[in-house]
Design brief:
The chain has 98 residues and is an alpha+beta fold. 53% of the residues lie in helices and 16% in strands. It contains 4 helices and 3 strands.
Length: 98
């Protein structure tokens, strides 16, 4: 899974009721974790699942454009998204369903 620090997105972490919230307001994503590190890992996974889902549907550029990303930032996300092996993910999902 890629490094969320390579993506041009704003992220925030804040403690909340004994947990940590991880937010990515530009993409309207939020998750949590029992620790800061877990919240960071959960957000990393959520971001890559979001990108993967958009790639599969062929709407990543459109979604990022609607979220206010610049052409340059969209290019950075698309470049980072090339590290996602969709064939391997599809195969892994198929194995999990058996």
């Amino acid at each position: 899974m890629g490094d969320i620090h390579m993506l041009p997105v704003e992220i925030h972490f804040k403690p909340s009721g004994g947990h940590w919230l991880a937010l990515c307001p530009g993409l309207d994503l939020i998750t949590q974790g029992a620790t800061f590190e877990q919240a960071q890992e959960n957000l990393r996974e959520m971001l890559w699942l979001f990108i993967e889902s958009c790639l599969r549907r062929g709407v990543l550029e459109k979604v990022l454009g609607q979220a206010g990303f610049t052409e340059e930032n969209i290019g950075v996300v698309l470049e980072a998204a090339q590290t996602i092996d969709l064939n391997a993910l599809v195969a892994a999902e198929a194995e999990c369903r058996v």
